[in-house]
Design brief:
Blueprint lengths: L1 H7 L2 H22 L6 H24 L3 H22 L2 H32 L10 H4 L1 H14 L6 H16 L3 H24 L15 H19 L6
Helix pairs in contact: 1-4, 2-4, 2-5, 3-4, 3-9, 4-5, 4-8, 4-9, 5-7, 5-8, 5-10, 7-9, 8-9
Length: about 240
């Protein structure tokens, strides 16, 4: 139900759902999962969570709807968080918290950027949004920041959270490295594909009259970018 809710919700609803409500769910898993939970219950749940990371990534590679692509990407990242919180070790919980904060900022920023393109093109189809670098050159910088943080480029906090989770899962079961590594690779592919499709190429006939970014839109992007940069430079701010 989550991708459907993301796609059909207004932009404010999508941003709040990605940045706040999903984090409440992660916090609930951390608080409610007993420390002495049986391994027979953990194995199938973590297997489903890590398999979901791969499945949502493959779905993103085939999506033509930009908002649906970002929604499935959000679900994939929360699969990593869910698998980390089930292990219930200090290192995994720390990684889950870091990734939740990083994902909240990044996913909210991507939804906002997608809505800015939708307001100008009246469509969510990727093929109809190409060439936006020529119409909105300043917003291309924010698209690049959002895409690179979404694929966990070093040294962003997304990478720190994912590395902690992948390390914890590997220590718990070495087989999980195949699932998480494949999921990280697919995430990098569709994030770069999303950026290249929307920003490169020639403007479509309907996009010739696209107006540049407004001050309020740039302010919203700045309020997303600053916390990402500050947390990347000083991770202790989380604690």
């Amino acid at each position: 139900w989550l991708p459907k809710a993301h796609v059909e919700a207004p932009i404010a609803g999508s941003m709040v759902l990605a940045a706040v409500l999903l984090k409440l769910g992660g916090y609930g898993i951390i608080r409610m999962t007993p420390t002495n939970i049986s391994t027979t219950l953990i194995y199938p749940m973590i297997a489903m969570a890590t398999w979901g990371v791969i499945m949502t990534g493959l779905t993103c590679l085939r999506k033509t709807d930009l908002k649906a692509l970002i929604a499935y990407s959000s679900v994939g990242h929360m699969g990593l968080v869910a698998s980390a919180t089930l292990i219930q070790t200090p290192w995994s919980t720390s990684g889950a918290v870091i990734l939740m904060i990083a994902h909240g900022l990044t996913s909210s920023m991507l939804f906002c950027l997608a809505n800015m393109l939708y307001e100008r093109t009246n469509t969510r189809m990727l093929i109809a949004m190409r060439g936006m670098h020529k119409a909105m050159p300043l917003m291309t910088s924010y698209w690049l920041i959002a895409s690179l943080t979404n694929l966990a480029l070093p040294p962003t906090i997304n990478l720190i959270g994912e590395i902690q989770i992948m390390t914890t899962l590997f220590n718990w079961s070495p087989l999980t490295i195949m699932m998480t590594a494949m999921g990280a690779t697919i995430t990098a592919i569709y994030s770069l594909q999303m950026f290249m499709t929307t920003q490169q190429g020639h403007l479509t006939k309907d996009s010739k009259e696209t107006y540049p970014a407004q001050t309020r839109e740039l302010l919203i992007m700045l309020l997303h970018t600053l916390p990402i940069l500050l947390l990347t430079l000083n991770l202790e701010l989380i604690y």
